[in-house]
Write a structure and sequence with these properties.
mainly alpha; 7 helices; two-stranded antiparallel sheet; Arc Repressor Mutant, subunit A; 60% helix; 2 strands
Length: 131
C-alpha cells in the first residue's frame, strides 16, 4: 500500500494569501492612485510625456483650461507621488515624467496580482492562457 498525497487545493494557502495581500497593500498606495485619479492630472502627465523633455508649468499647462496655480498644484501632487520629477533652474521649475517609477510600479502590481490570484479562474485569464 502506498501513501496517497493530500489533494492540492487550487486556492492559495492562508499564509500565501496573507503575504500576497500584504504585498498588494504596499503596492496599491492611495497617494499614487489618487495622483492618477484626476482627469486634469492625467492630461498634464500625457502632455508632459508627449513633449519628451523637461518642461515648465506654462509649457505643460496649455492642455488644461485651468489657472497656472492649479496646474502647479496638480504637478505637486504628481511629484509627491513620485510620478514626475521637479528640478529648479533659477526662477523656473522643470518637470519630467519619472517613467521608471511608473513602469516599475505597474509591473510590480501586475506580478503581484498574477502571483496572488494564480489559482483564481476568470474567462479573461483562460482566454489569455489559451491564446
Amino acid at each position: 500500500m502506498s501513501k496517497q498525497e493530500p489533494a492540492q487545493s487550487c486556492f492559495p494557502s492562508a499564509s500565501t494569501t496573507e503575504a500576497c495581500c500584504s504585498l498588494l497593500g504596499r503596492l496599491l498606495e492611495p497617494r499614487f492612485f489618487k495622483a492618477l485619479g484626476d482627469g486634469n492630472r492625467i492630461a498634464l502627465l500625457s502632455r508632459l510625456a508627449g513633449l519628451c523633455r523637461p518642461c515648465t508649468v506654462s509649457e505643460i499647462a496649455c492642455c488644461c483650461p485651468v489657472d497656472l496655480s492649479v496646474v502647479s498644484r496638480h504637478l505637486a501632487i504628481l511629484r509627491d507621488a513620485g510620478i514626475v520629477d521637479a528640478q529648479r533652474r533659477g526662477k523656473e521649475v522643470l518637470y519630467t515624467v519619472n517613467y521608471d517609477v511608473l513602469a516599475k510600479t505597474f509591473r510590480q502590481i501586475a506580478d503581484a496580482i498574477d502571483t496572488c490570484c494564480s489559482g483564481a479562474s476568470s474567462p479573461q485569464r483562460k482566454e489569455r492562457e489559451n491564446g
